[in-house]
Amino acid sequence: MTTKHPIEKNSDLHQEMIAWRHWLHQHPELSFKEDLTSDYIASILESHNIKIHRGLAVTGIVATVHGTKKGDAIGLRADMDALPIQELNEFAHKSTHDGKMHACGHDGHSTMLLGAAVYLKQHNDFAGTVHFIFQPAEEGGAGGEVMVKEGLFDKFPCSAVYGMHNWPGLAEGKFAVHDTHVMAAVETINITITGKGGHAAMPDQIIDPILTGAHVITALQSIVSRTVSPVESAVISITVAEAGFTHNVIPNEMQLTGTLRYFQPEVGQRIKERMHTLVENTCKAMGATGKLWFEEGYPATINSPKHAQICASAVETLVDNNNVLRDMPPSMGAEDFSFILNACEGAYIWIGNGIGSKHTPPLLHDQVAENNKKTTDNQTGSNCMLHNTQYDFNDDVLALGASYWVQLVKNT
Ligand SMILES: [Zn+2]
Ligand SMILES: [Zn+2]
């Protein structure tokens, strides 16, 4: 049995949404520089006589539509920014901005929210008010936090706020709704190891920061297995190791960079204390000195169970129950919707972008052309994982995603 959706696949509005999505995909812009994107979204909203507020967090837009019946105000949020990636797709709507790409599907997110705003403006027999939040700078710029700090919820009070991200690897037509934990907290790890450089043939006269660094990396990998409870989740990854200039010189210093992920603040605190102990004392044991510091990233994205249930009920009016996954493990990726959820309760769900390899390997040069051909044939790169050079948002999902937003508004 197929349920009737507010915005049907292949409807006129769906076709229009595909055109918007392709324009956005062709014009990707980086964090806080979403000028063309913001103008484009604003012009579509204004052409439908939807009231907008511009300028929160530089390029942010809040569009407001009132229902004909009395009720609470809620916020629906989409992100607008792209990534500094060179796109390898060859389809007609590929990026026209060199070195920039919508590789996380924020073009699709903005389009689904736009489609819902246009639909609800024309079908306003709902209760309450909807604030459509178009947010800049999700990819590392904490645009969500900036919008909150600049008074998002003072200017536009909401009783609840909702977010949605596309999820490659989750089949088209499926949704994942988490009761609590969705995405992890992230902090950047920085370590400087200082030894004493000199001639590589006279190691007895130097203190080797590279050998020390190797011990530090190994020691750090004992933390998740031996400090964190087996039922908690955490990741420590050292992703950059920089030292040295040439084959016969031991350098003075080694710099390590990495990422720390966890859900519970107390787990993060315990890991960081242990990291300080291991870095400082391992370096000391090797005769070197170690300095460790963290750059705060995004907090964990944690749904309120009550609002997760509201999302699940809205999804269940659109797809069969077995297409609503309630037990999918959370991701150790991070999301700045966490700042918005920390300011106003609500929930954030995943919408399936299509099934494919979750771990698309880096392609050899001659494989790229072949894979591009396949991507063009399929009219979609939804098989690719997020942030991949050949990713593409799945246009077929646009109508379903926008219908979800509409259904959520009707249900709240
Ligand atoms: Zn991303
Ligand atoms: Zn994203």
Structure in words:
The chain starts with 11 loop residues before the first helix and ends with a helix. It has twelve helices and 16 strands. It has an eight-stranded mixed beta sheet, sandwiched between helices. Strands 10-12-8-13 form a four-stranded antiparallel beta sheet. It has a two-stranded antiparallel ribbon with strand order 7-14. The chain has two domains: 12-184 and 300-411, Aminopeptidase, CATH 3.40.630.10; 185-296, Alpha-Beta Plaits (2-Layer Sandwich). By secondary structure, it is of the alpha/beta class. A hairpin with a 3-residue loop joins strand 1 and strand 2 (60-66). It binds zinc ion (2 copies). One zinc ion binds next to loops.
CA-CA gap between termini: 25 Å
Helix content: 25-40%
Instruction: Report the CATH superfamily of the largest domain.
Output: Zn peptidases
| CATH fold label of the largest domain | Aminopeptidase
Strand content: 15-25%
**What would you report as the Rg, rounded to the nearest angstrom?**
24 Å
Tell me the strand order in the biggest sheet: 1-2-4-3-5-16-6-15
Number of helices: 12
The strand count comes to 16
Q: What is the residue-averaged pLDDT?
A: 93
Total number of distinct structural domains: 2
Low-confidence stretches: 357-380
The CATH class assignment of the largest domain is Alpha Beta
Bound molecules: zinc ion
In the CATH classification, which architecture of the largest domain applies?
3-Layer(aba) Sandwich
**What overall geometry do the principal axes of the alpha carbons give?**
elongated
The chain-level structural class is alpha/beta
